[in-house]
Amino acid sequence: MAGRPERWGENTSRRTVEDNRRALRHVLWLGGIPCSGKSSVAHWLIERYSLQLYHYDRHERAHIARRDPIRHPALCAYEAMSMNERWVTRPVDEMVRATTAAWLERFALAVDDLCALPSEPPILAEGPGLLPDSVAPLLVSARQAIWLVPTDGFKRATQPTRGGAPANQTSDPLRAYENLITLDLQLARDVKAGAGELGLTVIEVDGTRSIEQVAREVAGHFGLRSPVTLG
Q1: Strand bridging mode 224-225 / 229-230
Q2: Is residue 53 part of a domain?
Q3: Is 211 inside a domain boundary?
Q4: pLDDT digits over 156-177, tens only?
Q5: What is the mean pLDDT of each successive set of 10 residues along the chain, which is 231 residues long?
Q6: pTM for the whole thing?
Q7: Is residue 1 part of a domain?
Q8: What residues contact residue 214 under an 8 Å CB cut-off, 6+ apart?
Q9: Which of 82, 98, 148, 172 is most buried, most CB within 10 Å of its CB?
Q10: Domain that residue 39 falls in
Q11: Which of 131, 137, 125, 140 lies closest to 202 in space, CA to CA?
Q12: Domain count of the chain?
């Protein structure tokens, strides 16, 4: 897929998008929204195929430690907020814009991480901040990437079992909880729309299929063959 000529920050300042595309041609991208089953699908895949796992969420603290006020203003602003400022007092539309901006800034840091890993075996990069607009310029083939997004009903049914800590750290947990759900649902719509515009694949998760069934569809999309061959 055609790349854009811009350059990214930190170590990527010395690499063009074309350089990164060549360097990351062995990466499979599994993006999507919290509570869509991404992590479970990723672990199902790495248990069956010879893949390295890059878990975007587990690098959050490292990315925050590497933040720079010039290159990462959204990430710096988010880190400076109180829990109430993050989840209670802001309009959800502002949360969406700020979250998207911080994810875009972190993506450059994730690219640096991925470029530093061995190229064998192939890497499965999984996480919510792997947005279609960010990933698309790095793809050699559209089959390298796929996104999982939950339906509204599935998101509301699964959210109570995970991710409650942020809401509980605010002065208004009920409002924060509803804001978290509304935020994720809007991000899901944005991911679905963005991937569609770029001709990339999205799986909508509604809870009617098992993790294994979804994972097998993802493996088929990637063209994985045991132990691992990218088809």
Answers
A1: antiparallel
A2: yes
A3: yes
A4: 888 765 545 788 889 999 899 9
A5: 39 76 96 91 94 95 94 95 94 96 96 95 96 97 97 84 70 91 95 97 96 97 76 53
A6: 0.89
A7: no
A8: 37, 41, 148, 203, 205
A9: 148
A10: 10-230
A11: 131
A12: 1
